[in-house]
Every structure is written in structure tokens, then in C-alpha cells.
Fold this sequence. Notes:
Elements lengths: L10 H12 L8 H4 L5 H8 L2 H7 L3 E4 L20 E7 L5 E7 L19 H8 L2 E6 L2 E6 L2 E4 L3 E2 L2 E2 L15 H15 L15 H11 L3 E2 L2 E2 L3 H4 L40
Parallel strand pairs: 1-4
Antiparallel strand pairs: 2-3, 4-5, 5-6, 7-8, 9-10
Amino acid sequence: MRKNSxxxxxxxxxxAVVATRKLGVRYLWIDSxxxxxxxxxxxxxxSVKMCEIYQHALLTITSAHSxxxxxxxIARRDAILTVPFEIEFPFPSGxxxxxxxxxxxREVVWDTSxxxxxxxxxxxxxxxxxxxxxxxxPDGLRWSALPSSAQSGALRxxxxxHNMDHELFDAFGESTQGRSIGWHHIVEDYTKRSxxxxxxxxxxxxGIAEAMQKRSRNAYYAGLWENYxxxxxxxxxxxxxxxxxxxxxxxxxxxxxxxEVVIAPSWSWASV
Length: 272
């Protein structure tokens, strides 16, 4: 740890330490500190443990807006738009109550697709596998826990805005159809995200696959499941699926990009 002591000075890690202490938790696991980044051997040994780490963690703390360790957990917000206010109103019985709420900042449902957390491939299993997660985003805190979730300042008619991340757990349902559809949604979400290293394409989703395999006892081959192969071989690259031409000209679609490094067999979605 002495070698990485300078890394602890980064804003995000300092914020994580403060949050952990405030929660009264003794241990904090940070991937870039607990996995030796320059060691291929250590990376290969530790990366396969992601499923166990996230599933058995008491709580996952993550930042939606930070693209690196220097961004911090807490985003800068306009203080004027977050001043709470009270509205006093009487009940017919004569009892008076106060409604305490922050001022509405924008629409209740926010588009989070452009935030780094939802654009990075490695972050998907972090969200899906964690039993509990606190997500710091530009609009406040989001609390996500199976099977429910909520967001600070995002109440409408007393109903918390729903976090879609854990709906991907449909993949772990008991029915064959449910598992197949669930995995389809996971792959669809995952393939929209980016990876720094193309060679991580199957590794970064391996934790979710491991969790699903434990429940289904189904053989897993390079991103496809044995029992659903006849369905999952029908994948295509949506980016190249253009609307049919309005005339009778022949449209030549560009071939899907394939990495020079062999990542998966050509029949797997992970190969493109």
C-alpha cells in the first residue's frame, strides 16, 4: 500500500474513504489499488473475482459523472436550485402538516446515458451485480438496492424514480425464456459501452455470466449460452442496419469492424 499511497490523494478516493468512515464500515476495496495495474498475472488472477467481490460487498460506492479518479464523488451543483422549501397545508381534521421538499431542478427522469458510468463497459457488472449501490451523479444521490431503488429529489406523487440497472437481473429469472431475454438486454446494453482494451470484451462481462451460470447451470461459450444458442446466434450489429432503400438500388453495407486481435469466434457478438 505504501507504493500506492500517492494514489490515495486523488479526490475520488478521498471521498470514498470519507463515505466509508461515515457509514462505519472498516474495509474499502478499490480496484485500481487492490489490483496491481502493471502486472498481467495479478490482473488475470483478480479480474475473475469481480462477481464475488460485487455480489458480497456490503455497499458499492460509485460516481456517475467522473471519468477518472480526480473527478471526485460529488459533482458541482447550482446551490440556488437545491434550496429546500416548505409548504404548509391543513387537513380537514384540523391537523396542519408541512411538505418539505427541494426545489425541482429539472425533469424527474434524467437522461443518464451520456454520463461516464453508463458509457464504460466495465461499469455494467458493477451496477448489475451489486446488491446495494450509492451512485453520486450531477443531480444528487441515487440509492439502488435489489429489488428497489430511489433517487434524492426525484419524487413525484410520493413515488421514487426507478433505476433501470437492476432490471437486468431478469437474466437470472427461473424461466428459460426469461433468462434468454434477460441476457439479450444485458448484451445490448453492454455493447453500447466502450472499453479501453478490446481484449477485455468478454472479461468485462464475465462476472455477470458467472452469476447467471451459477443459477442456470448452463454452459457458456464466448458470450452465448448453450441452451439458447439457436436464438443468440441471430445477433447483428445495429449500427450497420440501415432502413431499406426507397428505390431498387443495391446498398452495400460496410463490413462490421473486427479487431486484429482474436477475442472470440466469428459466430459470437464479442468478435465485432
